[in-house]
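Write out the 3D structure for:
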Amino acid sequence: MNGMKLAVSIAGVELKNPIMPASGTFSAREFSKYIDVGRLGAIVTKGVAPVPWQGNPPPRCIETASGMLNAVGLQNPGVDSFIANDLPLLSVFKTRIIVNICGHSLGDYIDVTEKLREAPIDMLELNISCPNVAEGGMAFGTDRNMVERVVGEVKKRAAQPLIVKLSPNVTDICEIARAAESAGADALSLINTLLGMKIDIHKKRFALENKTGGLSGPAIKPIAVRMIYQVSRAVKLPLIGMGGVMTGEDAAELLMAGATAVAVGTASFHRLTALTDVLDELTAFLKNNNISDVNALREIII
């Protein structure tokens, strides 16, 4: 189809298409050996903390039925190393850069945000939903009052549009979404992983050293679709949808549910070309269904 429009806008930032990696599942340095990273709508970094984090002890990733559990624990080299060593490489790919920021405390989030004020990046993604850290992470994202406080304080200091990543491990995700919106979030991303556990019955021990981990992959896609649909009708913010996207048709489903863009995570562990495969498959889906603008998918389901 000639003239097909794939571009989408998140908080005033235009992306060439809606496909990006989910935070923590992608390294531009490594994946550039297998795909054209510049084709992606954006690059999303793994979590960046104020100081280096070692993460959790192994084993910290394990396959499950229709998915995987991870308890990596946001291992990262810290914001100073990120600015010095990672940002120069990311800028080479000529696509949008979204930096995921994490912390054990409100002060941690503020420190990272302030250090990134002058950085050549396009957006921040505030991770208040990781289930694999002992302090911070999901603890900040499951209480409405804490969400309002953290988002509000980070927003005051952010030079870039602020995306807030939501946890599905809550009773009412719409309440949390409204809290983030009221505190100044420019966009939301959802869903992060669901808290799960696996026991090795033969070794008679927990499969993960951390005992619990975040469940991702196809098993959680129906939950992601439901939550994206609900949140898209509860707030006026653009949404980045994620959770179990393995194909272009999966991406189309999240877009129909109300997402403006889609992040691909676990699929990249299964298939190194998953990101560009999903983009090509989504483009083919649009063509085969005579849809000339990817944004029209959000208007199909009323």
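Residues 131-137 have pLDDT under 50 and may be disordered.
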